[in-house]
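Comment thread on ticket #2218

A.B. wrote:
> Attaching the input chain for the structure job we discussed in standup.
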Amino acid sequence: MKAVILAGGFGTRLSEETDLRPKPMVEIGGRPIIWHIMSIMAHHGLKDFYVALGYKGDYIKRYFLEQYNVSSDITIDLGTGATEVISPSPIDWRVHLIETGQATLTGGRIKRLQPQIGDATFMVTYGDGVSDVPLDRVIAHHRRSGKLATVTAVRPPARFGGLILNDEETAVDRFGEKSQVDAGWINGGFIVLEPGIFDYLKGDSSVLEVDLLERLAAEGQLAAYCHHGFWQCMDTLREKRMLEQLWDSGNPPWRVW
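C.D. wrote:
> Ran it. Output below, let me know if you need it in another format.
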């Protein structure tokens, strides 16, 4: 299954870090958070990544261009400049770095990837949130639901897209972006989508949460996988420092690999 990571936003609420680099490249434990997200997904078998670039996308490109050599054992002949890989990188990911526009919104970025995604089921997540969510169970839940989309529902403070779930906690009755909801469930990313969702996204101004998830919920086409474990985004400097402290503890809860 292909995995899309939305990595093009400006990250203005974390401007202390994002003035110099895009938010997905802000480091936790010496690695950019996008590396942590990819490690989580790769652990569950999702290793074919499509990174939707925008703001400072060249920074992300340079990082991945260097990764093969950096993570391999190599010999360099300083006289000729020739290099030889002694032991290849153990990381077997395929990373497609796709420019999706500076001002393109979340749904528009996904729409731009339609030619690469094709007609298969795929997963989308944001480039700033980590979790110990069992993605294999999310995918299996999605397939059982028969719906066009399944969102991972989590329970942090309700500052993100709020989900109103039915009694079985398996389907979404209403989606409200950035609303306070009594149930306390929010959109945690790690969203499984069918190719039919491209019909809902009309261009660069489409918003994933409004033009897709809200409409699917209204049509009874949005399911939810309720994750009761760890989830945390990195939206502010305080949250970045908290994730650093968890990593430094030696047992960060999202390190499932």
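A.B. wrote:
> Thanks. Noting for the ticket: Residues 2-248 form a domain with the Spore Coat Polysaccharide Biosynthesis Protein SpsA; Chain A fold (CATH 3.90.550.10).
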